[in-house]
Amino acid sequence: MLLGPALGVSAALFTLGVFGVLLRRNAIVIFMCVELMLNAVNLTFVALAQSIGVAGQIFVFFVMAVAAAEAAVGLAIILAIFRHRGTVDLQNINLLKG
Amino acid sequence: MAGTLVLFWAFAGLALASALGCITRRSPVASALWLVVTLFALAALFVLLDAQFIAVLQLLVYAGAIMVLFLFVIMLLNLGHPGPMDVKGPVGVGTAFLLGGVLLFQLWILRQAAPPASIQLPPGSVARLQQEQGLVGAVARPLFDTYLIPFEITSLLLLAALVGAVVLAKRRL
């Protein structure tokens, strides 16, 4: 069975995504790392679907729908920020810092 | 079985290597293209894990639609040329390694967790279900049956995202 190896790969991928979010300052790259984390979780769902039943694959379907909605809204927010501030570097976007 | 294992580790290695490329490349375009490679490798892993329909969806929705959206925004904002490296300072890097290490440690222990035997299906039962109902039918039938209400709510979510994206991206309403 591939369950153990798949969970290991998914753990490593998720950690890489977290690394990316914590390390980078470019808003678009951070956004791509969030997609990477979602994909790592999808791999977990698919791996577990092999032994628990096809419901795991249906959850992946819903995760994909949420990811698509999130990408559309998030990129629109990044566009609005870029239009307002002229940069997507999160270092310069600290309006809420007070 | 041995061939499956070799393929699995080959694509897993490809996914991890290109994910590393995604988070370390300086140019956002290079990052996005490495992420596409990761998504393709993950689709291959999905096929090896008996989820062929999900693998096709992964290629169509993620590698096709979402990544094109990302590349489109990168081009629109004219971020294609590699700027100065945007990694955070030493404090940020230290925090990232600490938190990432703790997280990897926790997930690595969870890796050995198997679902309890009482809820496990006999091996090969998902493949048998797919043979009986078809690759698409095995996923689609519960979607219109057990999971009908979440499925309808998904359409509402997509509508909300559509309206939200238009409102946010429009210069003036």
Write a structural description:
- The complex is a heterodimer of chains A (98) and B (173).
- Chain A is mainly alpha-helical.
- Helix content of chain A is 80%, strand content 0%.
- Chain A has helices at 3-23, 27-52, 55-85.
- In chain A, helix 1 (3-23) runs antiparallel to helix 2.
- The longest helix of chain A is centred in the last third of the chain and has 31 residues, at 55-85.
- By secondary structure, chain B is mostly helical.
- Chain B has helices at 2-24, 28-48, 52-76, 90-110, 125-133, 135-143, 148-169.
- In chain B, helix 1 packs antiparallel against helix 2 and helix 5 (125-133) packs across helix 6 (135-143).
- The interface between A and B is large, with 70 and 84 residues.
Provide a short characterization of the protein structure.
The complex is a heterodimer of chains A (about 100) and B (about 170). By secondary structure, chain A is mostly helical.
Mean pLDDT of chain B: 88
Measured as a percent range, the helix fraction of chain B is over 70%
Helix proportion of residues of chain A, in percent? over 70%
- Given as residue ranges, the uncertain stretches of chain A (5+ residues, pLDDT < 50) are none
Taking all Cα atoms into account, the compactness measure Rg of chain B is 21 Å
